[in-house]
Amino acid sequence: KEDSVTKHIKQIFTTVLNNEYIPDTKNKVTEKLKEITISKTILSFSINIIIIIFASYFLTSSAVSISEILRISPLIVGFVIVAAATSVPDAVISYSNARKGDIGDSITNVIGSNIFDILMGLSIPIFIAVIIGLKPVLIFGNIELIIGLLFSTLLLAYLFNRKKLLNKKHAFLFLVLYIIFILYAIYLAYI
């Protein structure tokens, strides 16, 4: 049975693309959609974006509070708690796709999200800071973390390009690499 998140995502994209039918996972037309106009879809999308913006603000301020209350380094909170929390929607989408056997959509979702996070998540705040009159300086002293990100991305590309599939061994490898990353972030926070 299809989960509600996947069904909702299919409804939005199918409505936008052909405004008529939604196929099920077996590519059969299963039901005619209710009349959903483009304006209703855009309004729903906009409202959800606004909710995400406010939720992100509260997530960040809560993370700072957690860091201060528990006297945990902001590095750990940022790299572990906030990163994991902001990746939950991606994980849900990837999980839904993987359950349907559509690993390709899972991979494109993860890669696309990370590209957006890196390129837009760094540039937009800097532009906003400049617009409001600040002189932003991005200071990051742990270049090995960026090298680790680059390595994991290249490893993913290599493994996926070899046979155009990822298997349990690859999944286990990435899980181990993530655990190593978390342990290293904790180490950095306390040295």
Determine Rg (CA atoms, Å). 20 Å
- Helical segment tally? 6
Residue ranges: pLDDT <50 for 5 or more in a row?
A: 16-32
Approximate strand percentage: under 5%
Strand order of the largest sheet: 1-2
Average pLDDT, to the nearest integer? 76
Strand pairing plus helix content: what structural class? mainly alpha
- Describe the sheet with the most strands: 2 strands, antiparallel
Describe this structure in words.
This protein is mainly α. It has 6 helices and 2 strands; from the N terminus they run αββααααα. The chain has helices at 4-18, 38-69, 74-99, 103-131, 143-163, 168-190; strands at 21-23, 29-32. The chain has a two-stranded antiparallel sheet. A hairpin with a 5-residue loop joins strand 1 and strand 2 (29-32). Helix 2 packs antiparallel against helix 3, helix 3 (74-99) packs antiparallel against helix 4 (103-131) and helix 3 runs antiparallel to helix 6. The longest helix is centred in the first third of the chain and has 32 residues, at 38-69. The chain is globular. It starts with a helix and ends with a helix. 5% of the residues are buried.
In short:
The protein is mainly alpha-helical.
Brief descriptors of the model:
single chain; 191 residues; mainly alpha; two-stranded antiparallel ribbon; 6 helices; 76% helix; globular
